Amino acid sequence: MKIIHTPAVPAPLGHYSQAVEQSGFVFLSGMLPASSAIDPIKHDFRQQCDAVFRQCQEVLRAAGCSYGDVVQATAYLVGVENWGLFNEIYASYLGSHKPARAVVPVPALHHGYLVELQLIAFVPVPG
């Protein structure tokens, strides 16, 4: 098992890694917006989503992957009414790539944030 860590994303505040690589797969922990840049009271859903997607992109990059290598995504959203906007933002980052996905409406997330994203990617074979 290989621990993936990039200083481009804030270190986890709990007992977990940003991501772990095992058997060709990269498992990204659930990502909330970075508290150093995004305030859940001042920043809206779109701003929080953009922050999460940029952070995930950095962790994927550190693992040698991109959004095109994602095979599964799970999104936790506060407020099912945010589903449409999330889908729009998600598509803007993943383009035509459509991995398996679950969107889970939840009543609340840690620190008052509105979105959390967890990804699984497959490391591309060089060549």
How would you portray this structure in words?
- The structure is a single chain.
- The chain is α+β, with helices and mostly antiparallel strands and 127 residues long.
- It has a single domain (2-122), classed as RutC-like (60s Ribosomal Protein L30, Chain: A, 2-Layer Sandwich).
- Helices cover 24% and strands 30% of the residues.
- It has two helices and six strands.
- It has helices spanning 45-62, 83-94; strands at residues 2-4, 19-22, 25-31, 70-78, 100-106, 115-122.
- A six-stranded mixed β-sheet has the order 1-2-3-6-4-5, with helices on one face.
- α1 packs parallel to α2 (83-94).
- The radius of gyration is 14 Å and the shape is globular.
- The model has no long low-confidence stretch (mean pLDDT 95).
